[in-house]
Structure formats: structure tokens, C-alpha cells
Specification:
- The chain is α+β, with helices and mostly antiparallel strands.
- It has 4 domains: 370 residues, no CATH class; 126 residues, no CATH class; 109 residues, Jelly Rolls; 77 residues, Immunoglobulin-like (Sandwich), CATH 2.60.40.
- The protein is 45% helix and 20% strand.
- The protein contains 28 helices and 32 strands.
- It has a 5-stranded antiparallel β-sheet. A 5-stranded antiparallel β-sheet has the order 13-16-21-18-19, with no helix packed on it.
- The radius of gyration is 30 Å and the shape is globular.
- Keywords: Membrane, Transmembrane, Transmembrane helix.
Length: 842
């Protein structure tokens, strides 16, 4: 891995980083936030730096649970790319070490042969093709140890390895823990079937050990499951029987060297684990030295996995009945493990007088490779080239030649093992190079400078904002974001987030209020909303690399090309209102109407704040404008791969903030379509289907005629509701926000707690902009009071009249029970193991 990365220009301190795909926007920032936790800058249970706030314990359970994650402690957040590079090498190396330990205690093979298997295992295509997904890599260390643990329970009655391996797996990653858990239960029954008389005594020890490990792991799994049940995605519907992209020759095609299709949509399973393991695995099933019952038992696991590649219900089952978002067939590494595990058994049963079975297999495999390439429809496997086929055949013959020389007694066994290790290593290097180049083509390895260069200036401005606000809570957002999760790394509370672990209800509510968070709210974006939402959510600061032409925002600091702006009308974390809050009705599919309703309720006004006007088209470039029914308009390019530009004029009355409203007619056809609005010397580019619809045109003190341009990229045509210009009356905005802020409650936030002192002449409802979660508890003067959600999204509670000290504290639901179960599971296993040990002695 080190040398393949080096061949791509990736090394310690290199400009090209390992940050490909989600590693740039998600994993780098999440690891940076864990670094903040380890240095005492953030609670391990709750983070204010994830959108409006998030259950951080649940985030750890999926993204950060590995035992190597604390290594980030030794890095500063600017150098997280180096941390992920190091973690990648350590985790893949640990997978190889674990398989070596498994092989050493399982097979009767030379040490060189075991190392060959461990190299092949740790560099299987599934690992290297998904090597940018850092949180997946831990689990490959545990799989061989769990299988070895099962063997030890069945053969020797020893269960410590199994207990520890299961426990660490489940704590590290509950998602892959489920897949491996299911597979290893199947493995136990398959091995039980090979000798039921001898192994039936292991049924109770195996399930008891597994149960105790499962109970102990509840410290992570129970809070994660409860959080997912409340805030996660819904289960996927089964709409077809056969999986979408799979074809007849998939198993043969994906066992060739260097075959990389994609890790996006439409991929087929990554199952390659090496030519030599494939040959010896096939040998396992044809040699007469291995019992038929063993072949049937383990073959049934192959049948189950292959069926799962093709049958959608089984495929969904392995994924917890939730279809993966890209990176398909996430359980396919189990096929690779089964291949290499049985290859070890085949290899130890191979001898000079094997009857020509291995040579026969070696001659058959190239034929299958050629048949797959020549008979498959060209459109099915267009990613497979003749080079892939020839390389694979070449390595088959290299192994055959070495083995034939061994059988002819021209090559001693030890030299054969060393020669095979060299060939396996060369093959693994070659395949890994193809996989990493596939990632480069598919996703690109981002330049370190994109992540690290803005850091000093960004950090300087976020620190300035912290000092300016001292102990009062505030939110900050960027108009020039580096990624969608910057707030994790820089330690500020924002709105944008891209994460599988999120508060779906609060994001959905923010979508209703104009922030873009569609579908299951995997994404939420700050860009392109109104001043009202800035102020209601307490966005007191913006960072921008251009002038921020927003009413009430003034520049207060500068660092490099970035400036820090302050919003004079930002609301604090809480606001006092009355119980009519819960009766507030939001109009459907009208985010400005929803904003108006919420503003009027909190301010006790009955006003309207937005008006609409149609801008006049004065010029177009490379654009055909087609008017369609139902007030839709189509902007169609005239020349390919050139942006579409439309220039407008619009009259803006004095005292208005103006926005261009871009609402797509069909989100599914946008793909990667982007829009840039150029107005008054500023231009912000954003992805249309991810960011909001209100593109800022600026604030106008006097009556003005504004000329602005809309530039569209990425798709040949874009369908919009005929774009109006929205005018927001800043005088009314100012009056409403001042009234709301008169009832505002400032909170001092630290760790997982928020504290405030308030005084009210009558009973009130305190609405916070903290995402509602059952983990929150509220105390008024030390007495616990009930909490209530507003629109399933915000945390609210009643406050009696008078002066009160209020304390909000968060503890992940299920954590206390999980901690008790953790202690109970370990104690129970210890007692059980002590009992078994004494029984053996007696």
C-alpha cells in the first residue's frame, strides 16, 4: 500500500492526499472533531458543531469507533490528511497481521505460505477499492480472529479470543458487525455440520460467548440503534427480485486482476482476493483428500453469498434492509474471506502427487476468463479490457509453472513457498495499483492544499468569533465552504452537514424553512436562504471570501482572503413565547410562508415580509429559453459543454433585500447542475439540487435598477419554476427580530450542557433551536421538567413566572443501560469462563 500510494504521489506530507470520495467532506472532519474531543474541546456525548447539534456518541458508533482512531490525538487538525494516511496503512497492515495469526494457528503450512495468504487477504479488491472509507477498514482485522475464536471454542473449549474479537468488532462498527455476525453464525453451523458428534458440545459455549459479547457491546450498539430508530432513515422497499446491475459472468469477471468498474451506482461485487487463493479454493472442492461433507457445508455458504449478489431480498438483508447509497454489495468481502480461508485448507492438502487436479484447475480458469470476456455482451463488462484478461492468465501460468517444477522435484518446497510469496506480492501490488487508480478516476484524490491551506485563516476567524462572544452561544456559517462538514473540524456550530448519522427531523423542518435537505436528509446545506433564517437560528457570523451584501452584516475581522462578518440581529439559543407556538400552522410547500408564520408567532406580529416581481431578460448567451405549461421555463444550451448565461434587469425598492428564487421543476434531472448568480460584484457558485433556492442579489438602501446574471453549468438543460425575484422588507425584518430578541434567552454552552438564568413576569414556553432529542433533560431551579418538541424538530419546555436557573443536559438514550449491560456482559463472561476453567481442572 505504501508503494502503490507512492506511485500515485501520495506519501507523508504530499500535496495529493488520501482524501477521496467521502474522506474529504466526512471522514477528515469527523476525525478532526474526535481530535477536539481528545483535547477536551468537545463532549464525547454531544456536539454543538454538527448542524444545529447532534448525538455524538451515535456518530462515533458508525464513523469513529475503531481502536486506532485515538491516534489522531498526535495530529493537529490541519494535518488530518496525514493522520488518515497513517491510519489507512495501519489498519490494512493489521488486517494482514490478523490473518497471519489466524493462518499460523489454523493451517499446517510453511511460514512463507501463510504470509502469502495474509498479503492476499489484506490487499483483496474489496479493501483496496474501498480504502478511502477509513471506518470500514477496522473490521477486516476482526473477521479472521473471530473465525479463529470459533475454531478454538469448537476444538479446545477456549473462548477468550472469540469474546474479545466479537466485542471489539461490535463496538468498532455496528453496521459491519451485523454482517460479520450473521456470516460467522453461518460459519459455526457449517463447521458443526462437518463433525456434529464432536462439535455439538461447542453449541452452548459458542452462543454463550457470543451472547456475552453482544450484551457487553450494548454500550455502543443500544444508543446507536435507539438513535437510528428515532432519527435514521426508513427501511428500503423491495421493488424487484434480481439486483439491478448484476450479470451472469460477474463472479468470473471480478476474480480477474485489476478489474475495477466503479464504487458509485451500477457496480458489481468486489470479490477478488488473488489468483493463487482462487486456484487452491477450487482445489479444495475437487481434491479427494477433503471430505464431501466439508465441501457441502462450506459450499453452502458460497451458495448463500452468490445468491445474495443476485437476489435483491437477500442483498437487502445483508445491508440491514436499507439499500446502500453507492458502494454497493458491502458484504462481498465475506466471499473473499471464504475463498482465502478454504484456499489455506486446500493448500495444506496439496502435495506433489495430487493427481493433476491443481494443474487441471489452472488450465480451466484461463478458459473461463476468456469465455467471460468473449461471450458476454460488450455493454455488460466494458470496464474489462484484454489487458485484464491477459494479466490474469499470465499469473495463472506463473503459478502453474512454479507448481509443476515443484511436482517434478525441480523445486524444493521451501523455495516454492518463497517463490509463490514473491509472485503473490507482485500480483497484489499490481491489483492494488489498479484499484487505487480506479479510485483516482472515480473520485479523485483531493489535493492536501484544498483541505489544509485555508485552515490557518479560517481558524483565526473562528477563534476571533469565539473571543467576541465569550461564553454566549452563537452560530457561524461559511459562504465559502471548504466542505459540507467544516464545522466539525473548526469547532463552530453551523447548519450544513453531510452524514449518515443525523437528526432527520430537525433537518426536515429546516428544509420546510428554506434550507435544502431533501429525501431522508442525508445532506443539509446553509447556502441560499433568507436573512430571517440567519437570525432565527442564531447565525451571528459569516465567513466569506467576497463582500457579504446582507442587511445587518458588517465586517469585523480579516485573515488572508477571508473576512468575518457579524449579524446584528441574530437570535440567541432560546426565545420565550407562549403555548400558541404549538398551534402554528405552516403552509405546505411554501418555505417563505413557513418563515412568515414562525416570525409572526415569536414576535406577536401579523405582518407580511416578502413580495415578488418578475425580472426582465435583457441578454442570453448559449441559452434557448423555452416557456412551458404551469409557469415552468426551460433553459437549454445551444453549444455543448459551455455554460448558459441569462442576464436580467429588475427594479428593487429602497430598504429591500433581494433574492433570485430558483426552484427546479424536477430534482431528479439535475445531476450535478450548478448555478452562479453574479450581482454587485459578488458571485457564489452552488449545486442546485443541494443548496437552497434564494440566491442573494444584495441589500438596497435606495430605489435601484439592478442588472444581474445567472450562469448555469453541468447539464444540457434545466427546468425551473419561472424564476421570480423575492423582495424582503428589511424595516419589517428589523422590527420583528428586535421584538423576538427582546424575549431572547442567552445560554452558556459547555460540553453536553447549556445553562441560562431568566426572569419572566408570567408563565412562558421556552423554544430553543436545539434539535429535539429524547436524550435531553431540563431542570428549572434543580427540578426536572418535561420537554416537548416543536414540529418534531426543536426542544421546548415550560418556564413558570419568576427568576430561574435553567440547566439543559444531554445523555445519549440507552447509554446508561448500555453501560450497565457492558459491565454485566464482561462480568458474566468472566464468571462463565472461570466456571468452565474450574470444571476442566476438576
Amino acid at each position: 500500500m505504501f508503494f502503490v500510494y507512492l506511485s500515485l504521489g501520495i506519501y507523508w506530507g504530499s500535496d495529493r492526499s488520501v482524501l477521496a470520495s467521502d474522506a474529504f467532506s466526512q471522514f477528515s472532519n469527523f476525525h478532526a472533531s474526535f481530535n477536539n474531543v481528545m483535547h477536551g474541546k468537545q463532549s464525547i456525548f454531544y456536539t454543538w458543531n454538527a448542524s444545529l447539534g447532534l448525538n455524538y456518541w451515535s456518530l462515533i458508533s458508525y464513523y469513529l469507533g475503531g481502536i486506532f482512531t485515538p491516534i489522531v490525538f498526535f495530529f493537529n487538525n490541519q494535518n488530518i490528511p496525514d493522520a488518515l494516511y497513517l491510519l489507512t496503512l495501519i489498519k490494512i497492515g493489521s488486517a494482514g497481521l490478523a490473518f497471519w495469526y489466524f493462518g499460523k494457528n489454523t493451517y499446517k503450512l510453511s511460514q512463507w505460505s501463510i504470509i502469502s495468504l495474509s498479503v492476499a487477504y489484506s490487499l483483496m479488491s474489496f479493501i483496496t477499492a474501498h480504502s478511502e472509507l477509513i471506518m470500514w477498514l477496522d473490521i477486516f482485522m476482526y473477521l479472521p480472529l473471530i473465525v479463529l475464536g470459533i475454531n478454538q471454542v469448537m476444538d479446545k473449549g477456549k473462548s477468550i479470543l472469540l469474546f474479545v474479537s466479537y466485542l471489539l468488532l461490535f463496538i468498532s462498527n455496528f453496521y459491519f458487525g451485523f454482517m460479520i455476525g450473521v456470516f460467522t453464525v453461518g460459519y459455526f453451523f457449517a463447521r458443526l455440520a462437518t463433525n456434529p458428534k464432536a462439535y455439538k458440545k461447542a453449541i452452548v459455549p459458542y452462543f454463550a460467548t457470543s451472547l456475552f459479547a453482544g450484551i457487553s457491546s450494548m454500550i455502543m450498539i443500544l444508543p446507536a440503534v435507539l438513535d437510528l430508530k428515532t432519527n435514521g432513515e426508513t427501511l428500503s422497499e423491495m421493488t424487484r427480485l434480481k439486483t439491478e446491475a448484476t450479470s451472469f459472468w460477474d463472479i468470473i469477471i471480478k476474480n480477474m486482476i485489476g478489474v475495477f468498474d466503479t464504487t458509485k451506482y451500477g457496480s458489481i461485487p468486489f470479490i477478488y482476493v488473488g489468483i493463487l487463493p482462487l486456484l487452491f479454493c477450487l482445489f479444495y472442492f475437487v481434491t479427494k483428500k477433503i471430505k464431501t461433507v466439508n465441501k457441502i457445508a462450506y459450499g453452502s455458504l458460497f451458495i448463500l453469498l452468490i445468491a445474495s449478489f443476485y437476489l435483491e431480498p437477500l442483498n437487502l438483508f445483508w445491508h440491514g434492509f436499507h439499500a446502500p447509497n453507492m458502494f454497493l454489495f458491502r458484504f462481498s468481502f465475506l466471499f473473499s474471506f471464504l475463498v482465502i480461508m478454504l484456499a489455506g485448507y486446500g493448500w495444506e492438502n496439496f502435495s506433489k502427487d495430487d493427481g493433476g487436479y491443481l494443474v487441471g484447475i489452472g488450465l480451466l480458469v484461463p478458459v473461463l476468463f476468456l469465455l467471460a470476456k468473449l461471450t458476454a455482451p460488450k455493454t455488460s463488462y466494458d470496464f474489462v479490457t484484454s489487458t485484464h484478461v491477459l494479466m490474469s492468465i499470465l499469473f495463472v501460468f506463473l503459478y502453474l509453472i512454479a507448481i509443476i517444477f515443484y511436482q517434478l522435484k525441480k523445486l524444493p518446497g521451501k523455495r516454492l513457498a518463497i517463490l509463490l510469496l514473491l509472485i503473490v506480492s507482485g500480483e497484489a501490488f499490481l491489483n492494488t495499483s489498479y484499484m487505487l487508480n480506479g479510485i483516482l478516476d472515480d473520485w479523485n484524490y483531493a489535493s492536501r492544499s484544498l483541505y489544509s491551506d485555508p485552515y490557518p485563516n479560517y481558524k483565526k476567524l473562528t477563534d476571533t468569533a469565539d473571543k467576541a462572544n465569550k461564553d454566549e452561544f452563537y452560530r457561524l456559517e461559511s459562504l465559502a465552504p471548504i466542505s459540507s462538514n467544516d464545522s466539525f473540524s473548526y469547532g463552530y456550530s453551523g447548519i450544513s452537514m453531510f452524514s449518515s448519522i443525523r437528526n432527520r427531523h430537525s433537518s426536515t423542518f429546516l428544509n420546510d424553512l428554506g434550507y435544502r435537505s431533501r429525501g431522508t436528509s442525508l445532506n443539509i446545506r446553509y447556502q441560499n436562504n433568507t436573512l430571517f433564517m440567519d437570525s432565527l437560528l442564531g447565525v451571528k457570523h459569516n465567513i466569506s471570501d467576497q463582500k457579504v451584501n446582507k442587511y445587518g452584516f458588517t465586517s469585523v475581522a480579516k485573515a488572508g482572503k477571508y473576512q468575518l462578518y457579524e449579524n446584528d440581529l441574530a437570535m440567541p439559543l432560546g426565545v420565550l413565547t407562549d403555548d400558541t407556538l404549538y398551534k402554528t400552522k405552516f403552509p405546505k410547500n411554501d418555505n417563505l410562508g413557513a418563515q412568515t408564520a414562525l416570525i409572526n408567532q415569536l414576535s406577536n406580529f401579523e405582518d407580511s415580509y416578502f413580495t415578488f416581481t418578475k425580472p426582465t431578460v435583457v441578454e442570453t448567451k448559449n441559452t434557448q429559453i423555452i416557456n412551458k405549461p404551469n409557469n415552468h421555463v426551460l433553459f437549454k444550451e445551444q453549444k455543448s459543454n459551455i455554460g448558459k448565461t441569462i442576464t436580467y434587469d429588475v427594479f428593487v425598492p429602497a430598504g429591500n433585500q433581494a433574492y433570485l428564487s430558483l426552484f427546479p421543476g424536477d430534482f431528479s434531472k439535475l445531476e450535478s447542475s450548478s448555478a452562479t448568480v453574479l450581482s454587485q460584484g459578488t458571485s457564489y457558485k452552488s449545486q442546485i439540487n443541494i443548496t437552497g433556492q434564494y440566491y442573494n442579489l444584495g441589500y438596497f438602501e435606495k430605489d435601484s435598477t439592478l442588472r444581474f446574471s445567472l450562469e448555469l453549468y453541468g447539464t444540457k438543460e434545466v427546468d425551473f419554476i419561472d424564476p421570480p425575484v423575492v423582495m424582503m422588507d428589511t424595516n419589517k425584518y428589523q422590527s420583528a427580530m428586535k421584538e423576538i430578541n427582546n424575549q431572547g434567552v442567552d445560554f452558556n454552552v459547555h460540553g453536553r450542557k447549556a445553562e441560562a438564568t431568566i426572569e419572566t413576569p408570567e408563565d412562558k414556553v421556552l423554544m430553543t433551536t436545539i434539535p429535539y432529542d429524547k436524550g435531553w433533560s431540563v431542570k428549572v431551579d434543580g427540578k426536572k421538567v418535561p420537554t416537548k418538541d416543536f414540529k418534531d424538530a426543536f426542544l421546548t419546555f415550560n418556564v413558570p413566572k419568576g427568576k430561574h436557573d435553567i440547566t439543559l443536559s444531554f445523555l445519549p438514550p440507552g447509554l446508561t443501560i448500555g453501560a450497565l449491560l457492558f459491565a454485566l456482559g464482561i462480568a458474566s463472561f468472566s464468571g462463565y469462563y472461570y466456571f468452565i476453567l474450574n470444571k476442566k481442572k476438576n
